[in-house]
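How a chain folds remains the central question behind the approach discussed here. No coordinates are needed to read the tokens, only the vocabulary itself. For completeness, the protein is quoted in full, as a sequence line and a line of structure tokens:
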Amino acid sequence: MDENKLNAPWRKMSMALYAPPNEGKIYGTMDIDVTSAEEFVRQSRANGKRITITHVVTAAIGRILKYDLPEVNVYIKRGHFVERDDVTVMVAVNMKNGREMGSIRIHDADQKTVFEIAEEIRSKAAATRQGEENSTMRNKYALGSIPWPFRRLTFVLLKWFTNTLGFQIPSLGLTHNAFGSILLSNIGSHGLNTGMAALFPGAKLPAVIIMGKSEERPVVRDGNIVIRTIMPFTATVDHRIMDGFHAGVMANRMKYYMSRPELLANPPESEPEE
């Protein structure tokens, strides 16, 4: 990507104005019609392909970051935006009957079909629930065991070392790609409609996307009232990286994929142009 576009003047100004990302957060929400996506999930499962709506959304996010918003697939290092090597969607998974959260990184999410993503999440989730978490999530227990008087100081020093100075600590799982390109969590599985996620300062994420509980609602289509399945989506974004334009593109492209989920069943090069 062109360096001037990646480090545009407004982005440099945002880096200077906002701390990472305790101050420069934006929240947004949108209801999206997922009727076609839910039907696609049902048909796929009837054909023996075990997928969920989370897998569909994961596949859509991967392609949106790659083909529609590549300038969002970045992290900040020493006052510059650095393009990531691939598109990695980090998916939160329930552990211990929902009392704890684990995570799964789907690398090259833009290149995989929804079925490949579903199988990868399923196999990695099984390993995670058996205690085989990735290094970043494993080290939360080590960092959490630091005595209280020194815990906050340790986190501040680690954030300064990794975020401000731009260094990595692979042994602690603190790398530029530790949390992937973006984080996705489905709180609808807990029966919740909407929620505004925290944007962890050390994660170097442009956004956290939250899926709420889908419900049938009466909506107007072509002047008629019909029943459609609607899912609320919310996002917390780092304003240094994303603004209203990027959020609008992401929301509209998500609506596009939810209405045409069959595109996600094929490799991206076989998708027709919009």
